[in-house]
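Regression report. Comparing outputs from two consecutive submissions.

Submission 1:
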Amino acid sequence: CIFCKIIKGEIPSKKAYEDDTVVAFFDIQPQAPVHIVVIPKEHIENMNGITADNSDVIAHIFEVIPQIAKENNLADGYRVVSNCGANAGQTVFHLHFHILGGEKLNTTMA
């Protein structure tokens, strides 16, 4: 898994945040002026893999996202996106959340 290799330091990344539970890094193909990917260090395939045993990791991600957004000057707003499954556009099968911002974003969701 490419994200597991980033976590292990086998693939370099420009980190925006890291603690014992998560890593956040700048996307190499940004879809907005600020595009940061937040991943749990524990390999969870996607949202379908969230259970009572690991949901605390997801709660932690949503606790640090506002901090990451603030540190990256997204006070005017940002979007958080997670694709679940191939039909939704998931291309890396390690749960991740995109933080997008830095400009006024399109209001359509499709």
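Submission 2:
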Amino acid sequence: MSVEFLKTDKAPAAIGPYSQAGKVGNLIFVSGQLPITNGELQTEIKAATLASLTNVLEIIKAGGGSLESIAKVNVFVKDMNDFAKINGVYDKYLGEVKPARACVEVARLPKDVKVEIGVIAVK
């Protein structure tokens, strides 16, 4: 089984030597998405969370999936004090979709963003 690397112009290009996502069979592995909208970093945590989630979904769609396809979410956050704000945006965005999730505070993220989100989805 081979890996199909996904790319869409509806989400920011990878900032390093990796792809936006890889698809193996019916699984879509989305790389961590920074909170970038129209080429600009979102610095306010709610806007940043929304931007990262939107980028993730656009990449999933490029692989033939949908919001309901998301099985696992990894959230990396610079400050766990933002947990409630992230959850508010996350809950509103995903609605009734409740995938498994990990949320981890990290010392630093690329471009010093406040949040990065990656997922595994099933097509």
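Expected: both submissions complete independently.
Actual: both completed, but the second showed a warning that disappeared on reload.
Relevant detail on submission 2: The chain has a mean pLDDT of 97.
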